Amino acid sequence: MTTLSRRTLLGLGAATAAAITIPGCSGKSGPMRVSWYGPDPVTKALNKALDAWKSSGGAEYTAESAPFNDYWDKLATRTSGGNAPDVLRMSMSYFSDYAGRSALKDLSSSGIDTSGLDKGVADSGLIDGKNYGVGQSSISYAMYVDEAAVKKAGATVPAQGWTWDKFAEFARDYSGAIQGSYGSTDQAGNFQLFEVYARQHGTELFSDDGGKLATSKDTVQEWFQYWAELRKAKAAPAQNVSAETTAIEKSLVAKGKAPLQFGWVQQVTFYQPVVKNPLSVLPVPQGTAGDLKGQFVKGLDLWSISSASKHPEDAAKLIGFLLNDEKAIKAIGILLGVPPSKKARDLVAADAGSAGARAIKYVEDIQALVGPSPKPWPKGYGELLTGFGRIAENIGFGKSDPAKGAQEFVDLAGKTLGQ
Amino acid sequence: MKRVLAHVGLTAGALIMLYPLLWMISASLRKNTDIFEHPGLIPEHPTLGNYALGWTSTGTSFGVYMLNSLIICAAVVIGNLLTCSLTAYAFARMTFVGRKTLFGLMLATLMLPAHVTLIAQYSIFRKLDWIDTFWPMIVPSFLATDAFFVFLMVQFIRSIPVELDDAARIDGCGYWGIYRRIILPLLSPALVTTAIFSFIWTWNNFFSQLIYLSTRTKLTVPVALRGFLDATGSSEWGALFAMSVVTLVPVVAVFVIFQRRILAGMAHTGLK
Amino acid sequence: MIARLRQSIPAYLFLLPWLIGIIGLTIGPMLLSLYYSFTDYALLNTPEWQGLHNYTALFHDSRYLQSLKVTFIYVGVSVPLEMAFALAVAVLLNRGLKGLAVYRALYYVPSLLGGSVAIALLWQQIFGSDGLLNDVLGLFGIHGRGWISEPGTALWTLIVLRVWQFGAPMVIFLAGLRQIPDEVLEAAEVDGAGRWQRFWRVTLPLLSPVVFFNLVLQIIGAFQAFTPAFVISGGKGGPSDSTLFYTLYLYQQAFGNFKMGYAAAMAWVLLLIVAVFTGLNFVLGRAWVFYGDEGVRR
């Protein structure tokens, strides 16, 4: 290893020193703690942004990070043990669970400058007039399409994506044209895509107070039915095929077995490296062609301050810095998602031909066309998210059917919401 | 002839046992995407790039994580050897009020899933101001909290003929003398087993190290390894496998060195 | 009574570290979890008393019943297989051949990998639809399937994983075999006992405390198996809840759904189940376990 240098050895020394820290001497309220989830590139980018904070005279801090799933186990334990970090990255999936149980601080009068943020993003963290988190990025749902593959199958990609009917037709034709391939991946268990579908049917997914499901059982059933038919027509893969797509590298689009993939807009940058052709970023299918009101732009990852923080002023300043400072913006780039303000997007200036640039352009293009953004996802969202996927899987394996599955989901929502 | 057959059989078995390790090494020599595309064992374009990448890519040298793990594991081995043998000796050889109840209690601590006691334990360590230090991993081992090893040693002590204790008692040994001169030497297979398992299991123990350690330079191997993967984003598979291979070196070494000691066992204690 | 207490003092001195540990670190959290099991506790709020509600809810929860079923199959199949493998290999690798130390190390390798994240990908690579197993079956003209991605077979791949990682009980058996004095076996040989007779009449009875230990602890361990399903199914217990181990479901409830009270009730039911099995083992063990402190039957 070429890197076993003096620096490495110094690092080893530091570790030894850390190991023998005498208990009781580290002080109860040390410096402000900053905590986030994400893979290594995110950690490196945020550390760089924090370096900029330090060199601009910002308060002392310590930083820590973990992969997404591990982060939540750790945060729950520490919050419950009265030891939550001061500044923390919060996902909308768990936001209401934390905010609703008074674990987060109201930022309304914290003086964080959110004036430049996209509208749906600035108030992403509003619950009952209190603001528990500031959006880090502007996110919308999207479809990434390998246009070259679609053309090869003799089809064309509409600029605004397909309607659901046309999409089903396309998926069937594609699977027929290219042997061993599927026109679509199976999205039956995708609760986040279903939210768009529900909104296309005229209601929000949840009631305004988050106390119950607003969409109807029929809509859920129709959704499960739609995908069951695509599977039956072999336009979407059978359940046991989907069950093997456990990593981006194993996804059907990466293996060239499907021409498209669904996900949050910024995730296209994770798929692009494993797909040969450029992926276009398009709106998801619609009920009426060109009507994108089902979609929304929102901040789904937020900066929050824990209610037990002993450094609330510094924490607020740091969040303001990460959102508005030029150096911080440049350091973060698009690693937390598409930047949440026009200013930041102009500064980041991703490579024109890159997937990141296409993601940014997508968000800017659809801003004016999407519907109003929904209220924060309610308490218990995490359980519904996994429950929806599980029910769809049971249908896929023939252990249930769309009607039973829809009823099961409505029952689960009845039990989970409003507690 | 019989010997040759035995070797052929054992080697065939060993290959099945070894396949995953070979596969891991092979994967560690491939580019990220090749890992998923070519399932065979021989990489087409072998590269050591993953090792260099994995060693440095977290911003802290992987050697730091290894050293942290080594410190914790070594301390846990010592703690378990010292205190579990004392506890086991008392349970196996001494009479006292409440013995059966306490023994049952000890076994019961093995039966409750750790997830539900985690938060209360976290609060205790927080009151002691031990969060983000190695103490929550180390101190419990000095208090014989791992009932697995206590029970293991109880079973081994109970199979030592009690006549040996009597003989020592006639020679003037008290409980401590019997423990030091008779039990500990004869217990060496169990002690070595405890040392091996303490080391390996602590080396692999992910959950408590995730919960208690936060500062980058204090993280341990299993926590660092999981950092290569992220469900929400891109994963560094090549680096993960490269570092997984590297982190196997110390555990294999510990096993190879210590297992000889198990086998020394009875024959070398001079107490036949 | 006082005399008996006084006689107990030396033992309590030996037990001192353990007593400090169990009183200071273990009992408190255990009792607290028992209290949580009677409450609605969402981790971030204060627990609210609700009596037996969590316990009664368990039996109306189809996923809970599924997790029980999965766990019982897992324990029932994997423990006997793992024990048999471990004992057989330990006896084979005990002595008599050159190079046994190398084999011992090689046979232990799978257990070193533990619940490493690498295992997840490896298992998919072996048991996936285009994995190694299907390649091998293909040689015999058998058309395989995605073993790990279908609810009918996924649990069996985890059972294979446990059996394949038989290293820990094997090492314990080896240590036990080493504790048997050579002269006992030699004496039996002089008396004209053959290989099998020596194994059944001498080795096995002398090894019985260790067999007993492995049996008790493997059962406890298998009931609490968490890591394999957690790592291989990505924390979900899928496909279709077919690998939803008891403790995996417990973890999902506690940390995924913020239902620590419910999870604590699950934990105490598990404790009862495991305690019954362990108690049964101890009662049955009286008939077949021989200790050095009660005279060895020869």
From TrEMBL, chain A:
Pfam entry (one): SBP_bac_8
Top-rank taxon: Bacteria
Keyword Transport attached: yes
Entry keyword Transport: yes
Alphabetically ordered keywords of this record: Sugar transport, Transport
PROSITE patterns: TAT (PS51318)
Protein name as annotated: Multiple sugar transport system substrate-binding protein
Species: Kribbella aluminosa
TrEMBL record, chain B:
Keyword Cell cycle part of the UniProt annotation: no
Listed InterPro entries: MetI-like, MetI-like_sf
Transport found in the keyword field: yes
Location of the protein in the cell: Cell membrane
Gene3D superfamilies reported for this sequence: MetI-like
CDD domains per UniProt: TM_PBP2 (cd06261)
Residue stretches spanning the membrane: 7-25, 65-91, 103-125, 137-157, 178-203, 237-258
Highest rank taxon of the organism: Bacteria
Membrane topology: Multi-pass membrane protein
Keywords, ordered alphabetically: Cell membrane, Membrane, Sugar transport, Transmembrane, Transmembrane helix, Transport
Protein family according to the UniProt entry: Belongs to the binding-protein-dependent transport system permease family.
Protein's recorded name: Multiple sugar transport system permease protein
From TrEMBL, chain C:
Main location: membrane
Domain annotation ABC transmembrane type-1: ranges: 68-281
Classification via Pfam families: BPD_transp_1
Keywords: Cell membrane, Membrane, Sugar transport, Transmembrane, Transmembrane helix, Transport
Compartments it resides in: Cell membrane
TM ranges: 12-38, 72-93, 105-126, 154-177, 204-226, 265-289
Membrane topology: Multi-pass membrane protein
InterPro entries per the UniProt record, alphabetical: ABC_transporter_permease, MetI-like, MetI-like_sf
PANTHER family, alphabetized: ABC TRANSPORTER PERMEASE PROTEIN (PTHR30193), ABC TRANSPORTER PERMEASE PROTEIN YESP-RELATED (PTHR30193:SF1)
Similarity comment: family membership: Belongs to the binding-protein-dependent transport system permease family.
Stated name of the protein: Multiple sugar transport system permease protein
Species annotation: Kribbella aluminosa
